[in-house]
Amino acid sequence: MNSPRHFLRFNDLSKSEIQAVLRRADTLKREQKTGVRHPTLAGKTLGMVFEKSSTRTRVSFEAGIFQLGGTGLFLSPRDTQLGRGEPVEDTARVFSEMIDLVMIRAYDHAMVERFAQFSSIPVINALTDDHHPCQILADIQCFEEHVGPIEGKTVAWIGDGNNMAASWMDAARVMGFQLVLSGPEGYDPDPALLEAYSDCCRIERDPMLAVQGAHCVTTDVWASMGQEEEQKIREKAFADYQVTEAMLDAAHPDVIFLHCLPAHRGEEVNETILDDPRSKVFDEAGNRLHAQKALMEFLVLGERFPEAV
Ligand code: CP
Ligand code: NVA
Question: What radius of gyration do the chain's Cα atoms show?
């Protein structure tokens, strides 16, 4: 069996590979806006498995593969055999006979790992309960567009120690920046990650201290998909962690605000911050398209990827 490259966690790519993907993403973004087409994946098919809802991920992958000359197949477990108990190991081998790459949005990260183990085509994690690496790729593209190289900078994560926080932590190590995480006790990221990344990631319970000197303040919903029944408990636990303009005022003068979206105004963000000039959340969302197009090219084209690593 071939051994394809996968992108299940942010640290599945090296720093120089991420940088090459982001340079390519910048080119694709610029040229997309002037109508230049890049049919680099002409004739290729992307399988898109969604166990959970999505707006940005579905639209960016489906439009992205189409813009590269290929086709996307939306595959819901509700109407595939995956939802009726066919093992992922078998599904992975079947897909490998028929299509060229696959992205999976799932609850269980281990399911995506098992799929990748049995797949001879590249597998992309499009969000699991534990990680959301594609979002961080787009976020770093956005950071570098607005602030400059992320190496040596500081990012403040305000809120839940969730899948987004874990992928920011992977990225802090790979890209060489400091990540300050601020949330209530009981909602910290995986202690194993905190221990492994003690040189680049730290907890600061006071959010106003956490943002000091930060070049980026970022947050996410308090209850992720699958945690809906904890909504009320979490609203209480996170009440002191709503991101406001005052937090941006206390950060570095060049600070930007990012949020992967969807946002809940009145919870993790106030009513106005998404419209603050320092908020780049819609650029960030748009970069999902460009960053993932570059990622798909990187994984499928290998040596023929147009950007030198
Ligand atoms: N940020 C993000 O992944 O959004 P969707 O859930 O809409 O795909
Ligand atoms: N942490 C959120 C991210 C949504 C894009 C969730 O998993 O629901």
Answer: 19
